[in-house]
Amino acid sequence: MNIVDVKNLVKRYGTTLALDHFNMEIAPGEVFGLLGPNGSGKTTAINCILQLLTYDKGSIELFGEKMSPTRYDLKRCIGVVPQNVAVFEELTVRENIDYFCGLYISDAAERRACVNDAIEFVGLQDYVKHRPKKLSGGLLRRLNIACGIAHKPELAFFDEPTVAVDPQSRASILQGITAMSERGTTVVYTSHYMEEVEEICSRIMIMDKGRTLAIGTNAQLKIMTGIGERIEVDVLELPEAARAKVQGLDCVQSADYDGHVLRITCGNGQHNVSDVLGILRTFDVTPGRIWAEPPTLNDVFLEITGRDLRD
Amino acid sequence: MWNTFKYTLLWLVRSPGIMVWSLLFPLVLTSVFIAMFGPLDDMAQLEPMRVVVVEPDDSVEGQAFKAFIDATSEGDDLLLDPTFVATADEAADLVRKNADTDDPYIGYVTLEQGKPHAYVVGEISMGGLENLKCSILALMLDEYTARAYLAEELVSADPAALADPTVMKALFEPMEATVQMQVTEGQPKESTRFYFALLGMAALFGGGVGLAACQRLKGNTSALGARRTIGATSHARAVAATLAASWLLSFACLAVAFAYMEIAGGVSFAGHEGACLVVVAAASLVATALGCALSAIPHLPEEGKNGILTGVVCFASLFAGLYGQPTMELADTISATFPAADIINPATQISQAFYSIMYYDTAGPLAEHLGILCVMAILLFLVSASSLRRQRYASV
Amino acid sequence: MRVFKCALRVMRAHLIFPLVYIVGLSFMGLFMAMSFSFGQADEQFQPARGEYAVVDRDASAVSQGMIDALSAVGDKVEVADDRRAFQDAVAKGAVDYLLVVPEGYGDAFAAAAREGTDAPSLDVVFSYYSAEGAYLDEAVGSYLSAVRTILAAHPTATLEEAVDDALDAVGHTAQTTILTTDAGMTEADRFLFYLQWSTYTLFAGITVCIGVLTATMGRTDVRRRSLTSPLPFISYNLQMGLACLVVTAFAWLWTFAIGAIAFPQAMTSMTVAGVTWCALSMFAFCLIPLAIGFLLGQLSASITVSNAVGNICGMVISFLGGAWVPLDIMSPAVLQVAQLMPGYWYNKACGLAAHLNSVPTLDAIVPILQSMGVLLLFTAVVLVIALLVARMRTQTSTAGGNAAAHTAL
C-alpha cells in the first residue's frame, strides 16, 4: 500500500493549468523529494493533497483511503511544515507549538511530552518563552518546523523548510528529517537546494508545468538524463584538430576551447578522462590542471527543466 | 476545542489592536462620561433662569408682581434668578450685552399697565429644549396674569371674598397638584442613558474581535489560517471555539467597563446590574456575529473589513441616537418614519433593550429585544456560515 | 517626488479607508445637522409644545378641564389605562407628560378647595425630556390653582361653572415678545453644528488614513530600503508630509464642500469672509489629526490601533467640543478641561468666523487668528514628538534587525 497515491490530478486557476494529470505514489518510509522550478505546481500539489485546495479532477488517497477535508482521522497522521512561517505572533514559542500540537492531540499529558520532544528536536529550549518577533530567521524556521511535527506524524510534508537558514541550522534540520525518517516517518520534501535533496531523499520527482518530468533515485535520474561527468583541462595551446577529435569521442557531448581551458561535457561512460587524455597525448599537448566532476542533481534538474529563466 | 478556545483567547488578549478597541475604548469613554456627567446629575434640576426684571412701581399691581417674583426666586426649587433694573431700556441693554456671554439672560420682564410683559431672546438650542426656557417663563407669567385676572374678578364681584383666608390661600399659595410617579421601581438616573449608549456602541465596536478571530480561521487569508485548516481538529469545533472566545473576550471587556462605571464612576444601575449584563452579553453576541459576517466578504483585506465595520457601527449608532442628545432626536424621527429601521438596526435594539430595563417592570419588552438580538446574531452567523464552513478553496 | 507619488499610489490602493472614514462618516454630520428643526426667529413668540396623555379615570368636569388646559400648550396622545401602556408610552418617548386622574378626583378636589385643605395629588410620569414634562405640569398647576380659587370664593358655584371660569381665567395670558437680539442666523447655526460635529469624523478619518499611509510606507523592510537609499532623510520626510497633506486636504475639502452644498441657506446667510474663515479654521483643525496619524505611523501602530486611536480621540474631542451634549449644561470643571482641547478652539474660531461682516475689521479677525494659532500649536507639539520618534526609530531594532524576518499572519 502506498502512503500517498495521487492519480490524474487536474487543478486550474482560471485558465492556467496548475496541475496537468499529475500522478504521485509514495511508499512507506520514503523520503520523497519533490523538485521543480518556481511555479511548477509543487505547493499546489501539496495543498491539494492536504485538501486545502479544490481540484478539478483526479483522486487522492492517503494511507490507502480517500482523502477529504473532513477525514480528521487521516489528517491526524499528517504533519505539515508550510513554506511561509505560519505561527501566532502573539503566542510564545511553547504556546505556539502547544496550540498546533493541540489540533492533533487532545490528551494534555501526551501533548506535553510531544511539545517537549519537539522543542528539543529543533533545539529551541532556550527560547520557549520568546515571542516569534524576537526570534532570528533560523530560529523562526525551526519554530515553524516544530509546530508542524510536534504530534509525531506518520507522513510529513516539508515545503522548503530551509529557506533563509544558516548552514548550521540547515544541517540540523536535515539531520532531524533523516532522524524522523529512520523512526519510520514518510517524508515529502520540496526544496530548491539540490544538494539537500541529493543528501536526504531516497526518491526524487522533478516536475514542471504541473506535470511529472522525471522520477527515480538520484542515480537513476542521472542515468536517465544521460549526463556524465564534466571535465576541464588547462592547456596553453590546443590544435583545432585535437578539439575535434575529442568532440568525436562517443562519450563526449560537447568540447569547447577558449584559449586556456578545454571544457568537455560527457555522457554516461566508464573511462572518459583517460580517453580524453589519450587524445591530447597523441597531439603532444601537455595538460596543466585536469579537473573532473561527477554529475550533480543540479545538472540533472537543469537538463530536464531547461536553462531558460522562468517567469 | 478547549485548546483552540484557550489559545484564541490568549492571542486576542495579547493583540494590542484588539485590546485597544475592546477594553481601552470603553474605559476611556467611560472616564470622559464620568467626568462630564458626574456633576451633571447633581444639577439635573432645571437651573434657575436668569432674567432681568424692571423694578415695579409701588402700585397694588406692582407690589403683587414684586411678591410673585420674590416667591419664584426663593426657596429650594427656585425657578428664576432675577436681576432688578430701573427702566425697560436698561433691561434691554443688559440682555443685549450679555447675549453672547456664557451666562446670558433669557430676556426681561416688565409690568405694562399692570400686566406683565416678557421680552425674550429668540432662543436657538441644539438640545431639543428649543424655546423651552422662554416658554416656561411665559407660562409662569401667564399663570400670574390668570391669577391677577381672577383676583380682579373677585374684587369686582364680591370684595368680601378676598378677606376669606381660604380664598386668599387658594389664590396665593403655590399648589402641589401633582406628584411625579415612576413607572418602574428604582429608576436609574437620566445620565445612565448615556452609559447605556456607550456600552451599546462599545459592544458593537467589539465586533472587531470576532472579525480578527474569523480572519485567522480561514485557509485562504493567511498561511496561519491554512495551517489551522489542515489540522486534525474538526472545523466546526474550531469555529465554535473561536467564536466563543471572541464573544467571551468582548463580553469580559465590557463587563470590566461596566464594573468601572459602577465602582469608579459611581453610576447607579439601581439594582438592574444583572439585566444590564445580560443585554451586554447579547450585544457582544450580535457584534461577534457582525464581525464574523463581515469577514465573509471575499476579496477584501482585513483592514478594509475593519473599515466597513467601523462605518456600519458608526451609522447604526447614529441612527440609534447613541451619539448624544442631538442624535436622539434624529433617532426618534427615524423610528417614527421608518419603524422597520429599528428592527434591523442592532444599535437600536441594544439601546431599546437597555431602556426596557429602565422603563418596564416586566421582563417582556426586554425579552423581546433580546430575542430580536439573538435572531440577528443567528442570521449574521448564517450569512457567514458558508464562508466559515469552507475548508477548501479555489486558491490560497 | 518619487516618494510622494508612491505614497499617493499606496493611498489609492487603500481607497476603502478614505471612502469609509472621510466620505462615509461625513454624512453622519449631515444627517444630524439636517434633522434639526430650528424655530424660526419670528416676530411672534411661539411657546413650546409638548406631547401629553391624560388617563382620565374620573371623567369629571375638573379632569375634562385639565385636558382643555393642556391642549393650549401641547398635543394629546392616547394612552391606554394600564401600567404596561404607561411604560410603553414613556419608554418609546411617545409622550412627554402622562397624567393619571384617579376616580373621584373632581369631587375630592372640590371639597378640599372649599374647605381650604390640601388638594389630593395627581400622579404624573415625565419622559426622558423631563423639561417638557415640567412645562406641561406648570399648565396643569395653573389651571387647578384657578379652579381652586374660584371654588373657594364661590361656594355655590357648580363644578362645571368653576371649570369654565378657570379656563377663562387661564385664557388670560401675559404678552411675550421676541427681542430681536442677533439670533436670526438659524441656518448658519445649523452649518455651525455640522462643523462642530465634523470634529469627530475629521479626526477619526484623517488619523486612520494617515495612519494607514505611514504604516504601509513605514513597514520595516520598505522603510529600511528608503533609509539606506541616497535620498536625504529630510527629503523623504518632506515628501511623505506632502502626501499626508494631500490626503488631509482632500478630507477637509470634501467635508467642507458637502456641508456647503447641503446647507445653501447657511452659505447665503453668511458672508464670503465668514465662509472663508470657517474653512480656514477647519483646515487648521485638520492638521492635528494629520500630526497624530503621522505619530502613530512612526510608532508603527497597526491599522487597527490607528483606527481605535482616531475614533477614541475623535469622540473625546467632539464630546468636549459640545457636539454630543451642549457644553453649557456641563460643570465649570469640565468646561475648563474642554478649553484645553482643540475642539473648543475650533468651535470658537468657527463661531466667530460665521458672524463676520462682509468687510471684517482687524479686531474681528484677530480672535479667530488666535484660536487658529492654538490649533496650530497643538499640531506643532504632536509633530515635534512624531519627528523625535522618527529620529529615534531610525536606530532601533524595528528599523531592521530581527523584526524584518517575515512572519506571515
SSE topology:
The complex is a heterotrimer of chains A (311), B (396) and C (409).
Chain A: E1 4-13, E2 16-26, E3 31-35, H1 42-49, E4 57-62, E5 65-66, H2 72-75, E6 78-81, H3 93-102, H4 108-122, H5 137-149, E7 155-159, H6 167-182, E8 186-190, H7 194-200, E9 203-208, E10 211-216, H8 218-225, E11 230-234, H9 240-248, E12 252-257, E13 261-266, H10 272-282, E14 290-293, H11 297-305
Parallel strand pairs in A: 3-8, 3-9, 6-7, 7-8
Antiparallel strand pairs in A: 1-2, 1-4, 4-5, 9-10, 11-13, 11-14, 12-13
Chain B: H1 2-14, H2 16-42, E1 49-54, H3 60-72, E2 80-85, H4 88-98, E3 107-112, E4 115-121, H5 132-157, H6 165-172, E5 178-180, H7 192-205, H8 207-215, H9 223-229, H10 235-263, H11 273-295, H12 302-319, H13 325-337, H14 339-344, H15 346-359, H16 364-389
Parallel strand pairs in B: 1-2, 1-3
Antiparallel strand pairs in B: 3-4
Chain C: H1 2-13, H2 16-35, E1 50-56, H3 61-71, E2 74-76, H4 83-91, E3 97-101, H5 105-115, E4 122-126, H6 130-153, H7 159-170, E5 175-179, H8 186-217, H9 220-228, H10 233-262, H11 264-269, H12 272-298, H13 303-320, H14 332-338, H15 342-354, H16 362-393
Parallel strand pairs in C: 1-2, 1-3
Antiparallel strand pairs in C: 3-4
Describe the structure.
The complex is a heterotrimer of chains A (311), B (396) and C (409). Helix content of chain A is 35%, strand content 26%. Chain A has 311 residues and is an alpha/beta fold. Chain A has two domains: 4-223, P-loop containing nucleotide triphosphate hydrolases (Rossmann fold); 228-294, 2-Layer Sandwich (Alpha-Beta Plaits), CATH 3.30.70.100. In chain A, the strands form three sheets. Chain A has a six-stranded mixed β-sheet with strand order 6-7-8-3-9-10, sandwiched between helices. In chain A, helix 3 packs across helix 4 (108-122). Chain A is elongated, with a radius of gyration of 24 Å. With 396 residues, chain B is an alpha/beta fold. In chain B, 65% of the residues lie in helices and 7% in strands. Chain B contains 16 helices and five strands. Chain B has a four-stranded mixed β-sheet with strand order 2-1-3-4, with helices on both faces. The longest helix of chain B has 29 residues, at 235-263. Chain B is elongated and about 100 Å long. Chain C is α/β, with parallel strands linked by helices and 409 residues long. Chain C has two domains: 2-39 and 186-394, no CATH class; 50-170, abc type-2 transporter like fold (3-Layer(aba) Sandwich), CATH 3.40.1710. A four-stranded mixed β-sheet of chain C has the order 2-1-3-4, covered by helices on one side. In chain C, helix 1 (2-13) crosses helix 10 and helix 6 crosses helix 7. Chain C is elongated and about 105 Å long. The two termini of chain C are 33 Å apart.
